[in-house]
């Protein structure tokens, strides 16, 4: 068996006994770059034994052509500096080709069962940069969020009597509502369960994109804290 290489419009054909393309070069080039799903035929669907170690991709494709008698068309630069994946076992030629290309950055673009063409894998889309949250937007949201929290505390008269400081740490879930709440009330830890009951699951405004979580909030109860805030709460 011999390897037939047909060069047309910078394309390489790795073949078995037959010619890769008998049409004019321009027609071959356009055909080679078309993307059509593979249509298995008796040649490509029959299983055969493969033992192809990982190697430079061009070399593996040549061996694949010798083993299967199929033609593989690709631009020379496409496979340069790329390596194939190892392929061992009994399988169809179509499966073997796709396996040896795995992880190489090259994919099957067109297949008829006798002729395959290779194309580069689509470039991965670049992740969108995280939205930039300005300090003004952050402070504006914190102020509105604090208003929601204070209104919930003011609804319970026992929570704005006496003096204490409370530290809240929580996340805002997708509903959006306060979730995974931690409460620490200094000097009056007995208030913590009541505060937690008032705030856990409290509906709030959705955070702006880019807001870091969890959120920490410090509040003071007394004449200068929640008492004064609650005095102005409807």
Explain what you see:
- The protein is an alpha+beta fold and 234 residues long.
- The chain folds into two domains: 11-120, Phage tail protein beta-alpha-beta fold, CATH 3.55.50; 135-231, Fusion Protein Consisting Of Minor Coat Protein, Glycine Rich Linker, Tola, And A His Tag, Chain: A, Domain 2, CATH 3.30.1150.
- Helix content is 30%, strand content 25%.
- It has helices at 25-32, 42-45, 57-68, 76-79, 93-101, 135-154, 192-199, 226-231, and strands spanning 11-14, 47-52, 71-75, 87-92, 106-111, 115-120, 164-172, 178-186, 215-221.
- The strands form three sheets. It has a four-stranded mixed β-sheet with strand order 1-3-6-5, sandwiched between helices.
- The longest helix has 20 residues, at 135-154.
- The chain is rod-shaped and about 90 Å long.
- The protein starts with 10 loop residues before the first strand and ends with a helix.
- InterPro entries: Secretin/TonB_short_N.
Draw up the topology in text:
Elements: E1 11-14, H1 25-32, H2 42-45, E2 47-52, H3 57-68, E3 71-75, H4 76-79, E4 87-92, H5 93-101, E5 106-111, E6 115-120, H6 135-154, E7 164-172, E8 178-186, H7 192-199, E9 215-221, H8 226-231
Parallel strand pairs: 3-6
Antiparallel strand pairs: 1-3, 2-4, 5-6, 7-8, 7-9
| Element string (H = helix, E = strand) | EHHEHEHEHEEHEEHEH
Separate helix tally: 8
Uncertain residue ranges = 1-44
Radius of gyration: 34 Å
Top CATH class of the largest domain = Alpha Beta
The biggest sheet amounts to: 4 strands, mixed
Strand sequence of the main sheet, in spatial order? 1-3-6-5
CA-CA gap between termini? 92 Å
CATH architecture of the largest domain: 3-Layer(bab) Sandwich
SS-derived structural category? alpha+beta
Total count of domains? 2
Strand content: 15-25%
InterPro entries: Secretin/TonB_short_N
Domain Secretin/TonB short N-terminal: 70-121
GO cellular component, one term: outer membrane
Keywords: Cell outer membrane, Membrane, Receptor, Signal, Transport
């Amino acid at each position: 068996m011999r390897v037939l290489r047909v060069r047309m419009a910078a394309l390489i054909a790795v073949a078995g006994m037959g010619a890769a393309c008998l049409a004019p070069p321009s027609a071959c080039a356009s055909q080679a770059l078309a993307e059509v799903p593979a249509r298995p035929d008796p040649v490509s669907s029959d299983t055969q034994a493969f033992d192809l170690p990982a190697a430079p991709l061009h070399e593996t494709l040549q061996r694949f052509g010798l083993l299967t008698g199929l033609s593989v068309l690709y631009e020379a630069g496409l496979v340069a500096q790329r390596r194939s994946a190892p392929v061992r076992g009994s399988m169809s030629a179509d499966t073997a080709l796709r396996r040896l290309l795995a992880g190489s950055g090259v994919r099957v673009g067109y297949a008829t069962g006798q002729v395959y063409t290779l194309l580069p894998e689509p470039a991965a889309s670049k992740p969108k940069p995280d939205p930039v949250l300005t300090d003004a937007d952050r402070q504006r949201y914190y102020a509105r969020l604090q208003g929601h929290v204070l209104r919930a505390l003011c609804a319970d008269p026992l929570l704005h009597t006496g003096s204490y400081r409370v530290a809240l740490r929580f996340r805002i879930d997708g509903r959006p509502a306060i979730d995974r709440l931690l409460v620490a009330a200094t000097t009056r830890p007995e208030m913590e369960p009541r505060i937690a009951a008032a705030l856990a699951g409290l509906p709030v405004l959705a955070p702006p994109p880019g807001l870091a979580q969890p959120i920490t909030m410090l509040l003071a109860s007394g004449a200068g804290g929640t008492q004064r805030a609650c005095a102005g709460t409807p």
